[in-house]
Amino acid sequence: MIMKFRFLGGADTVGRMGMTIVGDKKTMLVEYGMAPTKPPEYPITAPRIDHLFLTHCHLDHCGMVPAVVGRDGCEVFTTPISAEISEIMLYDSLKIAAAEGYNEPYTSGDIEKTMDLVVPFNFKDTIELGKLDVTLHSAGHIPGATMFEFKCDESTLYTGDLHTDNQKLVLGARPVKCKNLIIEGTYGGRNHPSREKTIEEFLSKVDEVIDRGGKVIIPCFAVGRTQEIMLVLKNLDYDMWVDGMGRSVTNLFLNYPEYLRDARSLRAAKKTFREVKNASMRKHAGRGQIIVTTGGMLDGGPVLEYLRALKDDPKNAIILVGYQAEDTNGRLLMETKSIVIDGEMVKVECEVLKYDFSAHAGHDEIVQFAKKCNPENIVLMHSETRELFLDDLKDYNVILPELGKEFELDV
Known about the structure:
This protein has helices at 59-62, 65-72, 80-100, 108-116, 195-211, 225-233, 246-254, 263-272, 279-286, 303-310, 329-336, 363-373; strands at residues 2-9, 18-23, 26-32, 51-53, 75-78, 118-120, 126-129, 132-138, 146-151, 155-158, 180-184, 216-219, 240-243, 273-275, 290-293, 317-320, 338-341, 344-347, 351-354, 377-381, 397-399, 406-410. The radius of gyration is 21 Å and the shape is globular. The protein contains twelve helices and 22 strands. A hairpin with a 2-residue loop joins strand 7 (126-129) and strand 8.
């Protein structure tokens, strides 16, 4: 069966994902996110949707879902863990929009309607929609992150955000044989260093900072990265604290042990960290040795309070463990050793380092995964460097979709 595909966002950019599939008298939407820039950037307005598929709960994939579901009342197919964390992220997004004075793209009522219309499925489950069967597979990105396999006459795999290496939090994705592969290429042209070597160097630096009498601040994304770093640090005998939304996300992850590589290990990590539950506890945490805290790009959250108190001591260190987008405090810190706090640009005297703990596949991993899926057609998306894959994938029919332009695949 020939179906028509169109990217509403995320074709040649990272983030604000959205892709429609039209066929069998249905219009389906895979993801619908926003770019959490200042102000936020949104995908092209979606047509009327019959069914929506959500790969995972990061805002660049889920952030605009309520705008569609609130309008159309369509069912949302995703894993239960992705649905529950998305709800937290969406309400937080509304709160940020209100605080920053941005237009709210949907209401809290739209979020409630979205949650009511979630139809939860687990990995390996199959959704039957007329002539089309849709099967869920783990994407290895964060707990609950899903690849969707669409199958009628042929098989089409949509990866969403993908990682093929095992992390401490989740196991890597496994290839799925298909005719059509729609795959992310975030790290086109770039490979990650060895995860084992990164962990070794990271832990060595933590020891070094504490040995010299300093404190370590580790800004983290709440969903996935906070928990990965807690697992990396869990065997250290230091005074360690965790602050911000990552605390509640950790507890939620533990309610879904089937999506974790080792739930027992995450429970153990949770016990080694003291949780900051109020402002007075934050003062105690600031006297500790290691603080894992949101926000990951230093634009908001408890991290700014810790930086205000600890930035002037060169014995201390800020260790970045996630992507720092342009026009963020994190990128500013990396490039100038300055940050903006309370509207004022201030110098940072403590040590600043960055370690690669990415939850995305690197260039070579994407190529290897694609080849093992053995497709005829490869659609490259979610990437600003898609052309860098062309030499490695020259034996396949590679499609580089353009924003808003339709293309067809035999599904």
